[in-house]
Specification:
Number of domains: 1
Shape: globular
Radius of gyration: 14 Å
Largest sheet: 7 strands, antiparallel
Order of helices and strands: EEEHEEEE
Length: 105
């Protein structure tokens, strides 16, 4: 993914027993903009949550994430961030040695 790519986070979805997190939103590269999904690691999820919290100090990001029990004893967590005043993050800010996978709709 190109440097300086912005991702407007709309939602996240993950299971407690799965190392991957699905993040949905809008990818912005220069003047191009399109809906996209990214597969992140749990470490990258923590980075996203920390960035969103820093950018939206009047909101507690953890309050926007809810969990529900699954049939196998795990938990399914989901969060919707579309109403946040500043839900845009740069992908460079969450780059780690674990590559992100983009799912383009």
């Amino acid at each position: 993914m190109a440097a300086n790519t912005i991702f407007n986070v709309q939602s996240i979805l993950f299971e407690s027993n799965d190392p991957e997190v699905l993040m949905r939103g809008t990818m912005v590269k220069g003047v191009m903009q399109y809906e996209s999904e990214l597969i992140l690691s749990q470490t990258q999820l923590n980075m996203v949550i920390n960035l969103l919290q820093r950018q939206n100090t009047e909101t507690t990001i953890h309050d926007l994430i809810s969990g529900e029990p699954m049939y196998d004893g795990g938990m399914l967590y989901s969060g919707t961030f579309a109403e946040l005043p500043n839900a845009a993050i740069t992908l460079d800010a969450i780059s780690t040695n674990v590559p992100m996978k983009q799912i383009r709709a």
